[in-house]
Amino acid sequence: MALPLPALDPLSGRWSHTLQWPSPHCDARPEGEMVSLLVVHHISLPPGEYGGAYIDQFFAGTLEPAAHPYFPSIAALKVSAHACVFRDGRVHQYVPTTQRAWHAGESCFDGRERCNDFSIGIELEGDEQGPFTDAQYVALARLVVAAMRVYPALTAERIVGHSDIAPGRKTDPGPWFDWPRLLALVEFPR
């Protein structure tokens, strides 16, 4: 049985078939700004470990610093993403796409700075030490296709990695990310 294709509600900015886990680390996009870029990231918390609720807690601002020796260095950060695709393909949404998530930091794409203003940020649970899962590619592609249906300026050429908009500062999604595979999945009829 095929997984249901998520829809993206253009008014609420919420994907269907996702667990909503609201983050306070967001704000309004500049007036009149439309989504025209999608940024792929990776995250694992603690670094190199998968599973658990630490990613959700981090984006929600509720990460307990004492839970792991690494966490005191990041617990006070105010960052988020629009969504995260976990190793098994589950998707949690933290920020509606109608809002500006704080995922890109200092960034530039096609001569425009402040990529958070006009982008969607999607995290993949993983790191640079190994490949992402089949379920993650399928789920990510489904989110991308749903976003492309709502935001016509979002094209395959405007799906980038964090490293593309913050070169020298960021390396994600990393060398294991299979761009041709994602783009092949995104190109099915819409």
TrEMBL record:
Keywords: Cell wall biogenesis/degradation, Cytoplasm, Hydrolase, Metal-binding, Zinc. One of its GO terms (biological process) is peptidoglycan catabolic process. Pfam families: Amidase_2. It is found in: Cytoplasm. It catalyses: Hydrolyzes the link between N-acetylmuramoyl residues and L-amino acid residues in certain cell-wall glycopeptides. Its cofactor is Zn(2+). InterPro entries: Amidase/PGRP_sf, Amidase_domain, NAMLAA_amidase_2. One of its GO terms (cellular component) is cytoplasm. Residues 23-174 form the N-acetylmuramoyl-L-alanine amidase domain. Belongs to the N-acetylmuramoyl-L-alanine amidase 2 family. This is 1,6-anhydro-N-acetylmuramyl-L-alanine amidase AmpD. It comes from Stagnimonas aquatica. The lineage of its organism: Bacteria, Pseudomonadati, Pseudomonadota, Gammaproteobacteria, Nevskiales. The gene is ampD.
